[in-house]
Automatic annotation (TrEMBL):
Record protein name field: DNA helicase RecQ
EC number per UniProt: 5.6.2.4
Organism, scientific name: Methylocystis parvus
Cofactor: Mg(2+); Zn(2+)
InterPro entries the record matches: DEAD/DEAH_box_helicase_dom, DNA_helicase_ATP-dep_RecQ, DNA_helicase_ATP-dep_RecQ_bac, Helicase_ATP-bd, Helicase_C-like, HRDC-like_sf, HRDC_dom, HRDC_dom_sf
Originating gene: recQ
Amino acid sequence: MPDLPPQARALLKSVFGYDDFRPGQAEIIAAALAGGPVLAVMPTGSGKSMCYQLPAVMEEALTVVVSPLIALMRDQVRQMRALGVSAATLNSMNGAEENDEARRAMREGDLRLLYVSPERLMMDGLIADLRRAKPRRLAIDEAHCVSEWGHDFRPEYREIGRAAEALGDIQVVGLTATADAATREDIAKRLFPSPPQLFLHSFDRPNIALNFALKDQPRRQLSRFLERHKGESGIVYCSSRQRTEDLAAYFQEQGYDALPYHAGLDQATRNRNGDRFLREDGVIAVATIAFGMGVNKPDVRFVAHADMPSSVESYYQEIGRAGRDGLPADTLTLYSLDDMAFRRRRIDEKEVAEERRRIEHERFSALAMLCETPRCRRQTLLAYFAEEAASCGRCDVCQGKIAVFDGLIPAQKALSAVYRTGQRFGANHLADVLRGEATDAVRRHGHDAIKTFGVGKEHSKQEWASILRQLFAAGALQTASAEHGGFALTAKGEDILFGRETIMLRGDPLTRREKREKTSANLDEATDRILTALKRKRRELAQEEGVPAYVIFADRTLIDMAEKRPATLDEMLSVHGVGERKLAQFGDAFLETLEEALR
């Protein structure tokens, strides 16, 4: 490992104002100064940009920085110029004069940092100009974008390797916050002319509290989360553009300064909303994943996911936008079985090679396991990146918010089903066997005749699927076949099956049925028709009162009302959630609605 010159620490203080390097920076900067190829994987907020900025200042030579976002490039240029470092960017938002000045400074050797997008790098004869300017290094920010295995793959990043080759004798430095082994291997192959020196630092962000919850009136769940962070800046991620706008409007009604952000907004609105979030305190960005890469706001105090993220890498990258200043930050991720089905369906519908589809399914399964894990969230998250950690004490599991119980009996039932069916079937088939459902597939394989058939009728199919995922996450099950999937027992699974080892499971997957029975999805046609009429009346009253609908009556109240069908005010008092005050305010209106709906 090369030593870091004393001048580096002096410039760190005199130019950047820092007394010392953050963990991992010094060794990467030393390697960059030594001139060989470098690939650095460092967590968000750890100061990756310093790893190429300081060498450019020390060497008084040009570094070309490839970055995916114009807003981030312009922000970095402003920061560098404020420090007295000559920096510029070439991009489509610049005027002709600004781009001409950047090129002049590059030609005359006055420039230390030039920020460009991967598309711009290959445009307008820039390669030829750069060859004449003789830059010392090419730094690629968000290097995971070069890999198809990366969570933000961008085809234009594939051109960077060709550009590096065209530039001749130039050092290549790749930096990213998220890259598993497959992604790192792909980056090395596509960006570097020779194997790079790899720096792989801890993925741990101990200042970020991790919390997950099953969706149960998600707007209310998010509102309760936001109440804990009034006046703070944060991001709420959504799975669709429409959902961002709907949630932003809802939060605005609740008194929050919430702004939508997605790729479908016109450029001026998107820029204005992004700028307000970056520049003002207490603004909430309600966004798709179009927002975030390169967000350089240090005081983001929370990140919420209104819908399940697409992968563990995406989740890690997105929560990493919180707490970049090292101070405590909070997260909440809402998920549902519908989310899981949607994500899996998206993977199945992609036109990709089967090997990639299999790996994407494995990655998504890892996220599902993170959602349902009965052990410390941080331990589970870091284990995905092959990193061990002690219990964090801050996540919802560590703080006792998630019920866990001795799961030996249901685990043994599930493992027995895996064993007796030949250790090659997936969760759906195994759940059918456990519940005693003689489907065509179950009968065809003779699994309606095994001892395990029907021993798990007390749990739903979804609950058994959750238990099987938890067993997989705990290392009691493994993938039976890389080609066909399915589950097989591990040595740990055998120990649990034969009672040599115990296991704790999450309690909440086993109590979902009670909640499901109180949703409109399980009502008969007549009751559902009455519920629809009650909701219509609630909406009218909410508009008249100028309040959210649930302020009138919660869904649970309306469901109970639709089932009990009270005919008098006294009977209405027996409905869940109806007290004297609300009875006096709204009782007559809902009795009238019930009478009309029952005609």
